[in-house]
Structure formats: structure tokens, C-alpha cells
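Class, carefully examine what follows:
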Amino acid sequence: KTLKMQMTELSNLSMAFGTDVTFDYLDGQHKCTPEDEAKMEAGVKAFFPGPYFEYINANNVGDKRVYSYVDDALKHISAKIAKDGPYDGLLGFSQGGMMAHLYCMLAAKGEPGYVMPNLLILLSSRMTLHSDHSTLCERFQKDKLSVPTLVFFSEHDDHVSGEETRRLLTTCSNVKQIY
């Protein structure tokens, strides 16, 4: 619901795609706990009404980055696509963009139940940092994703740095960037 509000009420981004494009929005499958909500920026909570959902919850465990709920999130996305798809493309913002990119890497790898979209649109997104995904990310830095990818990012983003987005771009062969 937050992305829908951002694309329809706070910007004209959904209309910029034209009237032939229909968006189907998917919340993360995990309802944020009060502890998760306490970590959120006050401005986000003030502007976007709860309840809040997330795909993953990232934590550092020793020297590794670990995502809780990542397998459930991927099942949630796959189930939505199987039920209501196929979709021409996937669009994701921030954590949702990371999940859409991860989904596409798994589809390209041939993971059963994953369907490669015809288009990937990422807004302010980074590549997965989950320690269990490092081999997958390395693979696609060599054998690039061929799905046409449109990436929006800013060097001034204080949540996802331009460097992090450029790292994601190293996995894509057919990419257009908008700064």
C-alpha cells in the first residue's frame, strides 16, 4: 500500500507509464513487530499509516548479513505471480526492488516455480546482501541477467547509495539507468 500511495498519490509515476499499464501491488508477507516499527524513521511512520509489512528483516550476525524471512518472501512473491500472473514485468522500490532482482536471478538460474518477467524496473534498489546469496550474486556478475532492466537511482539517496545500485547493475546486461 505504501508503494501504491507513492506511485499514485505522491507522484504521477504510475500515470507516466500510460493507460495501457496496470499495476498490481503486493505488500511484504511479514507484519512488522513493535520492535521493527521502533527502528523505522519517524517521518515514514508519520506520513504512511500502518500497519507496516516487510519482505525481509536484515541483521548482522557476526561478520555476515542475514535476512530473516527471505525464503518466505520469495514464496510469497512466487505464489502471487502463480495466482494472478503471469506479469509482463516486475517493479520494486527499495527492499521490494532487491526482492524483484533476487527473484529474477533465481528465475534465470532455473529455480522451479520462478517465471522470468519481460521487464524489470527497480527504484532505489540494491543487490541482496544476504550471506547465503553471495555465490548467486557472483554468478550473475559473470553471466548477466538478460531481462531488460530500467533502474532509477540517485547519488544523493541516503538509504541506498549510488555505489550499491551500481553494484546491482553489474548483474544486468540490458539496462537503462535514470539518475
